[in-house]
Input
Amino acid sequence: MDGTGGDRLLGRTDLAPLEVLVRETAQNSWDARRDGATPHFGLHLRRVDFRLRADLNRLFEGSRRPGRQRTPEATNLHVLEVFDRGTSGLDGPTDLSPVASGVPCNYQDLILKVGVPRDDGKGGGTYGFGKTAAYAFSEQGTVIFWTRCHTPGVGLEHRFVISAFHDSYVSEGKQFTGRHWWGDGRDDLVEPLKGERARMFGERFFSRRFEGDETGTSLLILDPKITVPWNTDSDAPDVMLRRHGDSSSLEATFAAEARRAVRQHLWPKLVPEPGHNSPPMPISLRVHEDEVDILDLAAGAITSWGAGLNAIRTRVSGSDTQVVAPSGLPVEVHDVTRLGKTIGHLAVVKRMRALEGVAQDDDLDPTWEEGAVQRIALMRDQAELVVTTDDWSDHTASPVFDWLAVFKSASDWDSVFADAEPPAHDMWVSSAGGETGLVIRAMRNKVRAILRDVFAVPDSTSIVSPGDNHHGVRAVARMFGMLLPAVDQGAEDSDAVPKSLRSGGRRGRRQMMSVDAPRLLETLPDGRQRQKLTFSVSELGDHVVEVSVSVVGDDGARSELPPADLALDWSHGSDLGDGRAVVPGEIQQAVALTGPPRRALRIEMNARPVNARD
Output
């Protein structure tokens, strides 16, 4: 293939070049994981010191090509090292010899070929274009490869080779593709350095070495294309410039962009599976000598995303264990079907607005970026890499719940969903033809229908009626989700219905009470939440209002909190103790209460006139 088209293989995408690089190389690492081993993926940006600059200059000495410059000699040249361990490495033949079915040929596929697809749809990189992203991210179009793999008859073997994708050119009347290799030249074929020579070169150019019996692959991207913001005018928007003069700005920009790319696209690899303490693929990020924390001290939204993913993992494994969201609410998992067959699963994670604040800098929170709320993470079953995060909801937002969702295709349908992905793996194209397009459209419509059903809510003006009609109580209970109780319509004459909710005194007498959604006032040092409920009683005169709060357990069981623990504070009225107060009617008022940290609560509020008979 002509090297000119190498950087076009990924097609058009909205992803930034660094996002494509992180995603594609991580996919290749995950696909190459060894059986029984936990792969480790990492990125390390560092400045080239005088020794490495001299090595690069000697290495490329005499390698001038028309239209291309040698490796630049700028004092602040950077290299980006991308590595994995616990993977198979670049094993198999190092030439283009035919390979029998079942024999590994990773070296051929990554170094010598382009666009070698998987035919089962189970890997993340179904097109085999991951390496193209690495060349495209280099200003020199040049990448150094160092691998350690198992070779039949040899055992553990180091391999070292350099490859470049450049523009095609004509030299001395001959047409050249622009693809170049540096290694051990033999009979017009460039073989990689092997064995001890490869190890020595690898340890000279790379910072991450191979320890013990580790296998894997390291890439060194020369002169990575990192842009930094530069404000040319205080009144003008920022523009992105390629600057070598300010290493600190370049490194800070890379750290922020790489961290966000890892979090946005690879967060499933950071979420331990149920029953495990370690993530499926630990990921590290270093800039020069500093380790960059990928996860914040405060877990943030990744705990909610992880709850959704683990709920699907649990369902697929056949376990009946209930996965609970950070809010304490159970995660709902829905089968997404087409023609009676399950093509995937949708996990819906509810978050209570009043209990869970949004961190200002949490780039995994759906509400983090105003005007671009993306709530549904899409991924394939085997790869478990985020294809994209989108928002297909078309229902009315709940006044109480925020939410996010995870969709994962069923294993048997992975190949169909893989077929719907463009080379950059950044979407599922619903306009794809044939069966693939029908499946994607059916999936989207089914997901929307599920979400409409889950979040169907009544008009927010619904009121609580302690009279002879309990539809108001039921409506507010549904609007509040698990915050307010639903009253069984058929239990009107049952002792299970509080007396304050029945008709009292004269027949037909109704006392209407409206309650707004709880609002978070503060989080106390011990983690307890201080909440405020605004309410009003629609009739004149004094009324006794009673508040009771229960903690909802993982199994749905309730445990009522002692009134003294609520520390009730009424804005109007006289506190009677035991969760009650005398309050005036026909004015808006509020009550503040304290609840346990990060637990789902059910709050009941009842009202009756002070002269009403019990």
Observations:
- Residues 81 and 206 are 7 Å apart (CA to CA).
- The mean pLDDT is 78.
